[in-house]
Amino acid sequence: MQIFGVDIGGSGIKGAPVDLDKGDLAQERCKVLTPHPSTPDAVADGVKQVVDHFGWTGPVGVTFPGVVTDGATVRSAANVDKSWIDTDARVLLGGRLGGLPVTVVNDADAAGVAEMHFGAGRHRRGTVVLLTFGTGIGSAVFADGVLVPNSELGHLELHGHEAEKRASSKAREDHDLSWEQWAHRVQKYLAHVEMLFSPELFIIGGGVSRKSDKFLHHIKGIRAEIVPAQLQNNAGIVGAAMRAATGG
């Protein structure tokens, strides 16, 4: 079965049909830049562009970089325009897509669901924390395979700063950090999350998961196992499609 997945990020909007039997993209994904300002209408236009690229006419799952309740309503917007807050994204995007059924989910939660079903978290029990490092830091927390939604651990305070302002992939680029320097910041962040949740496994997702050989070996002193996401930066697309397939 194929369902369409779209992943809205702070820098790009990407999507593709997903083969839900394999947990992989059925076609090469299409990506457009996230508009600036990233208002609801402007981002909806980007989502439509991605979906129209494939001529898709079925259900669509869409991730959003913030808290999403009831598969529809946006409650926070740290890395996109603040006018998203309290927007019914399901109604907005469904209307822009000509009435196609739309399900909306937190971006890291979608990536986590995909990794737990098809990737690095498969068959893992106990507490598992997926962290996506990109424009910000997204998180998905699982207890014995059950998602605790909208955890948003990138906004934890760490040494007087919001964690994602110091340890996101964007922070590495903005501060011109080497991989080793950035890994030390990530290590401090992981230690903080480990102190709070005592996970058995950290899964590192986002675009940096493709480059895990450059930094993971620099992270020391964490008791939990640390592995890169197997679906890499496609996990959000796959998870969005999975959520759409179940109607939320």
Automatic annotation (TrEMBL):
It comes from the Bacteria. SUPFAM superfamilies: Actin-like ATPase domain. It holds the Pfam family ROK. InterPro entries: ATPase_NBD, ROK. PANTHER family: POLYPHOSPHATE GLUCOKINASE, ROK (REPRESSOR, ORF, KINASE) FAMILY. Belongs to the ROK (NagC/XylR) family. This is Polyphosphate glucokinase. It comes from Streptomyces pilosus.
